Each structure stands twice: as C-alpha cells, then as structure tokens.
Amino acid sequence: RKLPINYTLINPINISSSVIKYNHTRHEFEKLRDASKGSIVSGISKLKKYFNRFGYLEAEDRISNNWSEEFDSNLEFAIAKYQEKLGLPITRKLDSVTLSEIISPRCGVADQYTTMKKTYSTENYVYFTGRPRWQRNIPMRLTYAFSPTNMLNFSDSLKMVDLKGAFGRAFAHWASVIPVGFVESDDYEFADIRIGFYSGDHGDGEAFDGVLGVLAHAFSPESGRFHLDAAETWAVDFEAERADAAVDLESVATHEIGHLLGLGHTAVREAVMYPSLRPRERKVDLKVDDIEGVQALYGSNPNFSFEAFSESDLLSANGGFGEDEEEGTEIRVRIWLLLFIYVFLFCM
Q1: Which domain holds residue 229?
Q2: Among this protein's residues, is 256 annotated catalytic?
Q3: pLDDT, tens digit, 9 for 90 and up, residues 222-245
C-alpha cells in the first residue's frame, strides 16, 4: 500500500573531516560570469574549492590542496552535475542562474560525493548512505537541548523566548507528519539533539565561513549535532529585524532537522530540503517531497492526511526549471492519481 520510493543515497559523514578552510566572499564569483571551458580567470581556484566542499569535484592535489585557475574539463563536469542536482538548466557554464545559486547562503551539508562512482536517481528526496534513522520504537520521542555556553547575544529583535519558539515550531512541522515527538530538555549532555551557535572552526571539521556563507549544518542519525553560524543575523520576525542580511531562524532550523532525521538535499526547489536559502526568505512549510521522504523512514503521523494539502502544495513537488505545458499536465495527472489512491486506501 505504499507509494513507490524514489531516492538517492549520500555519504553519512556529511563532509570530510579534513575540512577545506575557505573564507571567501561569494560575490567574488560574480567576475566569473559566463566563464566556460578553456578560460583562465583569477577566482576559478576558489570556485573549485566550493565544488569540492559540496561534493562535486575531486581534489587536484590531495597533499598541498592547491587548485589551478583554469576552467578545465573536471570543472565543467562539476558544474553540469551541480546544475543537474539543483534542478538548474544544464549549460555547463557559469551562467547567471547558476552563479545566483552559488552565491546564495546555504546549508553546509554536502549535496553529493565524488567518491561515489555509482549513484541512484536524483529525481526526488535524498537519504544518507544506508538510510540511517533513529532506531527506536514507533511512536518515538526525541529530546533536544540548547548549549549552555554556545548561544547568541540576544537583542530586542531576538530574545531567548523567541529563539525557543522558532525551534519549537520547526520541530512541530516534522512531528505533524511522522510519529515522532520532540521535547525540550534541560540536560544538554544527554539530549538526543544538541543545538548550539558557533563561529569559524569549532572542532567538528565543519568550519563556518562568516556572514551569508554556510548558515548551519547538522549530522545524520543518530549523531544529534546541530550547529548554526553565530555570525549570521538571525531573525524570527522580519518586521522587527530590518537588516538586509537577516536569515530566518525557523526556516534554517526546519531544514537542519530534516538532516537530523536522515534526509539529504533535494532538487525540488520549493521543498524545505533544498540546500539554499536567500536572506529574508522564509521557507517553513513541508512539501510533498519532504513529507514522502521522511515518512518512508518513520511512517506517517496517524493524524496526517495528504487530503489536507492544496493543489498548489502538491504541484510544488515538481520544482524544476523549464518545464513545458505538456510535462506540467502529466505531473497534475500523476498527482491526482496519487490523491485518489490515498483516499481509496483511507476509506478501506
């Protein structure tokens, strides 16, 4: 009675422990616009480091970690894989759409791994290798706690009660669709999920890189580590926080909790598990891609039903670029067919 599962596996350790410490301003990449194979441009080496960190490019020199400034065949292939993975037009060039995505703030978890010579389809939701999940009886309860030493400097626009409220809502988004409850604990050391805000190199091999770079990262089950970059301007209310660089805390928290539960990055742009989030953007509502992925790991919350979803929510499962009208019609037919199956099974 379950729908067919279509997923990809990625490495469970997220990023190599020998982290590449890059601290560039991503807007430096703008000068690379329209560069293509054969170009030699200052800044290409930094772009190669970017693609290496997020799993698209093997190191050119594993010993010295030096990168050339040549737009070579390997970089062209990496760009094509990046475009394919994130649902962008596959041009193999640094076009405007691709550069816009590269310079967007994003999650620090890698999208895929160049060391994996064989991968599965990337059409839908993604898991870590081995499909790890929390191995407890269903329904289960997970505890979470905030670091007593690694927290933000609070302000009038963001107080501790606001922060806890944002995380509480983020956990509730996932709890509404799977039989997993989340309870805040005062015992940080023994909590299942441990949340903290850190700057730069903070000892886990996943150094943060400053404002509007990597926003946060979380590790696959059952690690429970959830780290956010303290350098960001975190916001829970864009009316109260007017900064252009403000980042919505609830949106990032909802995304990272998906990793903690076992989901990787999807190519569905509207989904919570898409890897990037622009400043002052809010994305907290789970889409079909997010829900089907997490329910394949944990089952469905008995109070959840896809019938409650609107057609617009369901259509967001597509989420790519350049779909023509015929493809859109086919997608709608498939969605309504799935709805019919759900209703039929529910009424049996």
Answers
A1: 135-297
A2: yes
A3: 999 999 999 999 999 999 999 999
